[in-house]
Design brief:
Layout lengths: L1 H22 L16 H9 L1 H5 L6 H20 L15 H7 L16 E13 L2 E7 L4 E7 L7 H8 L5 E10 L5 E12 L15 H6 L1 H7 L1 H23 L3 E2 L5 E2 L11 E4 L4 E5 L4 H9 L4 E9 L11 E10 L3 H20 L3 E4 L2 E4 L5 E4 H9 L10 H12 L5 H8 L4 H13 L7 E4 L21 E6 L2 E8 L4 H25 L2 E2 L2 E2 L11 H9 L4 E7 H9 L18
Parallel strand pairs: 3-5, 6-10, 14-15
Antiparallel strand pairs: 1-2, 1-4, 2-3, 4-5, 7-9, 8-9, 10-11, 11-20, 12-13, 15-16, 16-17, 17-20, 18-19
Helix pairs in contact: 1-4, 8-9, 9-11, 9-18, 10-17, 12-15, 16-17
């Protein structure tokens, strides 16, 4: 007898948790549906525990497995009745939002009965409640939600009993019926028949807490989108943004092309590449770190306006702004310079903002951003002087004087790492760029084009036609983040070779320093410079055939989506971001 009581308690506990989990979605099974008999004291105890069960922030592993076992049993019961709990198809006539729109004028308590008002919908059940011979389910599809009004007398055969016995929150249902608005004003489908299209085996997160574990949200994005509809809305807006970019580019006469992801040399940027090995060719290949060099080859081949929206891969750090794979658009236009790319950047961003928001004043993390054209355009030298008080035009090429003046002006605002970065600069141009990154970038909140970068950090840009030591290059900043990078493209093959060779030499110096100092510095892994950089000889050959004067620009689509969806981090706008291996 004692063993029987123990067994009864062990069996009842997971079942009780399952039913109370469902109750958090506003539905609770009645005790009579249990397949075992509970004593009155057990039932009373279950009532006392309802509040604590419903407020549990997460379902424990043991509860999940118990619920899964119960639902697997339901799958077998459904199959035993000759039904398939994993259907092949369902003929939908409307989405939830379409029904909300069509019947928005239906009065409270009014019901439609004509043949034309028979509808068929499908979606996931996210809430349920029952009162004797009446049950209410909330169905969500891609467009929104609608209530299912399930009355025993309306349903054929024993479907009402099937609904109560077999339908759980999380199941995907198809339902057919007519339309009514309840006395309380809720538009509903009066269900005449239904079918379980997909039986869910695992419980959804608690309705009142949602999926709050940040790591789990990214790792199980499919659950995140079910539990948090706003997350799915971000990815719908992302699709609008990408479509808007394509429409803008196509309307301006640009041709979309595709270039290789696997490349023999990782060029077009300075970044650590991912390396793979091709067995048939017997050689290493690199995942591309930019699309630039192949798009320029298209210009050599005779195309005058080209662009590519593509994935880029860089084997570097992960942060709120960086993911190892990300999406950019790069575009190139023959016979134009970097001034035209500023106009294009304004056009792309404003058109995307209008597509998503219908206006050009947006909120980003509590800050109002105005995207009305024209945007501010200022040189890097002037911005650094404005923010830090340092005029780099006074130093010429005297690096030591420039370093001393910089440290005396800003040393009190530097930590040891930033001070070391300034001391390690190899030219006045590198120092100017370092001061800009430390002190100016974070203050560029409203859209700003930063013009005329030092030649040392711009190996693919044309020399400035009026200022020695600078290039015709700009970067676009909004909310303290770089959003775009553009040049008047370098077309001189001899100058290009010299600059790329200098870049390789500088990189080899860094590699040697990393090797001499060991793999770690100040307790932090410092191997981002330990990879090998090689010249793309085929690109240099292409330039020798002649590339027309051109401008080019790259825009970060992930960062643009962050801006236009008010998302704080890059992982919030990538459906399945790269994460650490789960321990």
């Amino acid at each position: 007898m004692v063993e029987a009581v123990k067994l009864l308690n062990l069996t009842w506990q997971p079942l009780k948790n399952h039913f109370f989990h469902c109750s958090t979605y506003a539905f609770r099974r009645k005790p009579r549906t249990l397949l075992i008999r509970a004593s009155s004291s057990t039932t009373a105890a279950s009532g006392r525990n309802r509040r604590s069960s419903a407020s549990s922030p997460a379902t424990s592993t043991s509860d999940r497995e118990a619920i899964r076992a119960i639902r697997l049993k339901k799958v077998e019961e459904i199959k035993s009745k000759g039904l398939n709990p994993y259907a092949y198809e369902w003929n939908k006539t409307h989405s939830a939002q379409q029904l909300q729109d069509i019947y928005k004028d239906l009065e409270n308590g009014e019901e439609t009965n004509s043949e034309n008002d028979h509808v068929s919908i499908a979606g996931r059940i996210i809430a349920r409640r029952a009162f004797g011979k009446l049950a209410f389910l909330t169905l969500r599809d891609d467009s929104g939600t609608i209530q299912l009004y399930c009355e025993k007398e309306r349903l054929v055969d024993d479907q009402f009993e099937q609904l109560k016995a077999h339908v759980d929150i999380g199941d995907i249902l198809g339902a057919k019926g007519t339309i009514k608005r309840t006395e309380k004003g809720e538009l509903s489908v009066c269900v005449l028949s239904f079918a379980i299209l997909t039986k869910s085996l695992l419980p959804l997160p608690d309705k009142y807490h949602g999926l709050t574990d940040i790591d789990k949200r990214y790792r199980q994005r499919y659950v995140d989108m079910i539990a948090n509809p706003d997350v799915a809305d971000v990815f719908r807006k992302r699709a609008k943004i990408v479509s808007g970019i394509r429409r803008t580019m196509d309307s301006l006469g640009y041709v979309e092309v595709e270039t290789p992801v696997l490349q023999g040399a990782a060029g077009g940027a300075e970044a650590r590449p991912f390396v793979t090995y091709h067995n048939s060719l017997g050689r290493d290949l690199y995942l591309r770190i930019a699309t630039e060099l192949h798009l320029k080859r298209m210009l050599v081949g005779g195309f005058e306006k080209v662009y590519e929206i593509g994935r880029i891969f860089r084997n570097e750090g992960i942060s709120t702004r960086h993911n190892p794979e990300f999406t950019t658009i790069e575009m190139y236009e023959a016979y134009s310079d970097y001034q035209s790319m500023m106009n294009l950047a304004e056009e792309i961003v404003t058109q995307c903002a209008l597509a998503v928001h219908g206006k050009l004043t947006i909120d980003y993390q509590g800050v109002e951003i105005c995207l009305e054209k024209p945007w501010r355009r200022e040189t890097m030298h002037n911005l650094v002087k404005e923010i830090s008080g340092i005029d780099f035009n006074e130093f010429g090429n005297d690096l030591e004087v420039a370093k001393q003046a910089t440290l005396s002006s800003v040393e009190n605002n530097l930590d040891s790492k930033d001070k070391a970065s300034i001391e390690a600069c190899q030219s006045v141009g590198h120092l100017l760029s370092e001061v800009f990154e430390l002190f100016v970038e974070p203050k560029l909140i409203q859209p700003t084009f930063v013009l005329d970068y030092p030649i040392e950090i711009s190996p693919l840009a044309k020399p400035h036609r009026r200022s020695t030591g600078l290039t015709e290059r700009f970067e676009l900043f909004i909310c303290g983040r770089e959003l775009g990078n553009a040049f008047s493209e370098l077309t001189d093959p001899i100058d290009q070779r010299r600059r790329l060779e200098d870049q390789v030499k500088q990189h080899e110096k860094k590699r040697a320093a990393v090797s001499a100092n060991g793999d770690k510095k100040e307790g932090i892994e410092n191997d981002d410079d330990s990879y090998e950089v090689t010249l793309d000889e085929d690109f240099l050959t292409a330039l020798e055939y002649g590339m027309p004067p051109a401008s080019g620009m790259g825009l970060g689509i992930d960062r643009l989506v962050m801006l236009l969806t008010n998302s704080p981090g890059i992982r919030d706008v990538i459906p399945f971001p790269v994460l650490k291996v789960q321990q």
